Amino acid sequence: MNVKLIGSLIAVSIIACPLMYIFVGPKLDASQLETLKILGIIVACSGLFCFIVGELTNNNSQMDKLWSLLPIVYTWVIAVRGGMTLRLVVMAVLATLWGIRLTFNFARKGAYKLKFWEGVEDYRWSVLRAKKEFQPHWKWMLFNLFFISIYQNALVLMTTFPALVLMNVDVPFGWVDVIAAVLMLGFIIYETIADEQQWAFQSTKWKLLGEGKKLEELPAPYNKGFNTVGLWSVSRHPNYFAEQGTWCAFYLFTIGAGIGIFNWSIIGALLLIVLFLGSSAFAEEISSSKYPEYARYCQQVSRFFPGKKYC
Prior knowledge:
By secondary structure, the protein is an all-alpha fold. 68% of the residues lie in helices and 0% in strands. It has one domain. It has twelve helices and no strands.
């Protein structure tokens, strides 16, 4: 993950968010601002927890553990304070389904332990932490503070902004809302299938490797080292594609409520797309260094959208 890209992303976010709010609208009323204050306190507590525990344990997946849980909390807080309208409840239920899927997928990898500060760390953090750009440790500490603990917590909150702008909207639930709900549910199902295919592939691969076989000795397709079957045969990151689609669909509820085709609450979905561009590039950098055939896979299969052939 490019350090300059991360810095630019944070800078753009700091500038773009208030500008979009000021010039695009809609403005938040007193009850929405009070709700945002409550959510902001949760964000601050979460960020502080992630930074302190990450530094003390050298496990920087603390935010990864909370990523799937916080949107559930945020959307239900908004729904309750918004009077539990049909639209807000549907949005909260869908966010909950999304969160359950992601939490389960991360939990079975060993991320959650009774000692909450323990658990398996996402392998990418150790690779990133070892890069020369983050030596000595104080550089990584700043990265942990500003990007992992503060920025990512803020981004997770921003993905739920469409619910916040709909708190006091009394427009009836309509056909656009139905389309948004169906799309979001469809992306959640798509991502669940991608997760299951990846889990099955990796489980079988590591089982075979555990029997003493070398990677090149494994039967196809496991001898490549990376998944190329199912949804992974038409998209290098089908889970990332569905994740972006999920929160874009979440934004569509604001259109159904008559807020307008373009409003400031889209900022979370847009920044998430940019984040996944950087995250996928970093993951592919690691895969290319480990697996000789990965570069060819990139030339044959689309990064995100299924079916296209570009690298």
